[in-house]
Amino acid sequence: MAQDAIDLLDADHQRVETLFRDYLSAGSDAAAKADLAQIICMELTLHAALEEELFYPAFREATKDEKLVQEARDEHDQAKQLIAQAESTDNLDALVAELQRTVQHHVMEERLQIFPKARSAGLDLAALATRLEARKAELVASLQEA
Ligand SMILES: [Fe+2]
Ligand SMILES: [Fe+2]
């Protein structure tokens, strides 16, 4: 069976969880950690854009749950503030650790509250998956041009 929108979004979450683990395993390899931090920030930026442009508006439309969407957006903003500091920080380990905590908390809210509510609200998750994949391809292409 094809992946629906929630499968796609949670695959992003799992990929980032693995990257955070890789970062911890990189130990004292500063170059590897800098690369991983950059990939983590890029993955999170793409993922947040897809949710904010497509998934959250569809969720809000289907559930009328303004509060959950606002909480989620606030958590995205917290992560974005940390991501904005990643290139200039002199303590990347501390910043990545804080980003990991922020993301873990947010992903848990999505898995426990937002995703189950989206499923029970009858969102068309198959159609949304197609839109997410198309938009992701566009965003990746524009990053590669930059
Ligand atoms: Fe999110
Ligand atoms: Fe998410």
Automatic annotation (TrEMBL):
One Pfam family recorded for the sequence: Hemerythrin
Keywords carried by this UniProt record: Coiled coil
Record domain Hemerythrin-like: where: 5-118
Family matches, as InterPro entries: Hemerythrin-like
Superkingdom to which the source organism belongs: Bacteria
Annotated coiled-coil segments of the chain: 62-89
Protein name from the UniProt record: Hemerythrin-like domain-containing protein
